[in-house]
Amino acid sequence: MLDSEMVEKLKNASVEDRIAVIEVISPSKEEIAKAGGYYTTTKGGSERVSTLKFYKGLADAQGLNLDGKSALGSSRGGRSASYRISVQANGDLLIGSAYTKQMNLKPGDEFEISLGSGHIKLTQVSEEDAADLQRSAFGFMKNTGKILGDVVEPVIPETQWDVLQ
């Protein structure tokens, strides 16, 4: 058990020093957080220990960024992605740049649209798939026709050809 004098001394120490001292005496998680100064005293005089704040402080001291904020405590401005969109007045669905940046999409990237029961699925088409799709569009009727003979004269007289008028 840590006495109040030990707790006061540890308050002014670095987080790493606090952990080193506390590990020697192996107290409970609450005692570790309290020794680090992560507690408040209620109006009734009881102490409320905040282990979560202690763990966040320890992570910050180790250089870990767990909450999306920088080590200085300031977060990057702007809105975060909500993963919800609405149909625009003109009927379009607009997927914002937060999503396209997250997926490293570039202008011209293509997607296949699949409609399901109550949902729309977008599947990114790779450059190879797009090239295969384009190649298959040319010559897709190959070997489907039958040659019955040669065309040896026009079906209509030349005087009726619009091109020659």
Automatic annotation (TrEMBL):
Secretion signal span: none
Keywords: DNA-binding
GO cellular component, one term: protein-DNA complex
Every SpoVT-AbrB domain range: 82-127
Superkingdom of the source species: Bacteria
GO MF term list: DNA-binding transcription repressor activity; transcription cis-regulatory region binding
Name the record gives this protein: AbrB family transcriptional regulator
Species of the source: Pseudocalidococcus azoricus BACA0444
